[in-house]
Specification:
single chain, mainly alpha, ABC transporter involved in vitamin B12 uptake, BtuC, two-stranded antiparallel ribbon, 4 strands
Length: about 325
């Protein structure tokens, strides 16, 4: 059988140019960038169906999820910068607890401003120590912040005698977590403010571009004039200060300072950031996706509680989430 060749007057069938363009566009999309949105929608819908009789979709429960995840979201904004710069901060939870205790003790005089400044001072001091040890002494951030996690927890427990420090300042409690601005919880306002500022800084400013450059290739970044040491110091400082704000949000919401506030939050924060698509190897990051990562962690925790699982089982699930997230977002 002989092969037929097209006659001079005929042409081969070509795929439609529109279909070709669409196919090419779809091939160029990195679906990992949108995995967090899809995952959040799927998990939310799943719990909405399975836990409908348990009140999952009630306005009270949904607002409670926002309140419970506000501190995680605030810390996740700053930790996005840290991980995008190819560093890590394991001390955020303990720093939050220490800041809550220090702010509560400083407000024993009844002065709100003194309490806020004292809480922020915790973040500044811890950030300076973490950043200095990493940038000037070359100690890996993993080891520095792991040590600081224990130090901050121990100091908070020590100065509070392992007990809660009550906060009777209504102004502080209202601003930092317990009040509302109209119908909107103040914790939601804090979350939106941090996410908005963080998203703009990371994606639209010179500092944000330098953070990503430092995480992507520090040698190349240094050759282009980026002070990589300054960037590393800055992101470690930002992380500690954001943790101190989160600690004061805990204190305001729960009307007391306690060393346990923030305990274990470093796991949830890192899970939120990694679920948001930020690579552990640095060089990329998204504050908005980190927000959805924290909301996903919050929805999962809330759903597991409504389903009757205890805290230890929730910890197991969060650990599994980190492993899955790293596997799905790992870039070759």
């Amino acid at each position: 059988m002989s092969l037929q060749t097209p006659s001079p007057g005929t042409t081969r069938a070509e795929p439609a140019s529109g279909a070709t363009g669409l196919t090419s566009a779809l091939r160029g999309v990195d679906w990992r960038n949108y995995a967090i949105f899809v995952g959040f929608a799927v998990v939310f819908a799943l719990f909405a169906v399975l836990l409908a009789d348990d009140g999952f979709l009630t306005s009270v429960n949904l607002l409670n999820i926002f309140r419970q995840t506000a501190m995680i979201s605030v810390m996740a904004v700053a930790v996005t910068f840290v991980i995008a710069a190819a560093q890590i901060d394991l001390s955020v939870g303990s720093v939050a607890g220490l800041a809550s205790v220090v702010a509560a003790m400083a407000m024993s005089s009844g002065n709100t401003l003194i309490g806020v400044l004292a809480g922020l001072a915790v973040g500044v001091v811890v950030g300076a120590i973490n950043g200095g040890l990493v940038t000037f002494f070359g100690i890996p951030s993993f080891l520095v912040t792991l040590a600081m996690m224990g130090i901050a927890l121990g100091v908070a427990q020590w100065i509070s005698n392992s007990g809660p420090v009550p906060i009777l300042n209504d102004s502080f409690n209202s601003i930092f977590g317990g009040g509302n601005i109209g119908p909107v919880p103040s914790l939601l306002v804090w979350t939106v403010a941090f996410v908005a500022v963080g998203a703009v800084v990371l994606s639209k400013t010179r500092f944000g571009r330098q953070v990503l450059a430092t995480g992507g290739n520090p040698v190349a970044a240094a050759f282009t004039g980026v002070n990589t040491r300054r960037i590393t110091f800055s992101v470690m400082m930002l992380s500690a200060v954001a943790a101190s704000v989160a600690g004061m949000l805990y204190a305001g919401r729960l009307e007391s300072g306690r060393y346990q506030w923030g305990d274990g939050d470093e796991l949830s924060v890192i899970a939120a950031v990694i679920l948001g698509g930020t690579s552990l190897f640095g060089g990329n990051g998204s504050v908005v996706r980190a927000l959805f990562g924290s909301l996903l962690v919050g929805v999962i925790n809330n759903g597991l509680v409504l389903a009757g699982l205890d805290v230890s089982q929730q910890q197991v699930v969060r650990g599994a989430i980190i492993i899955i997230a790293v596997a799905l977002t790992r870039r070759k």
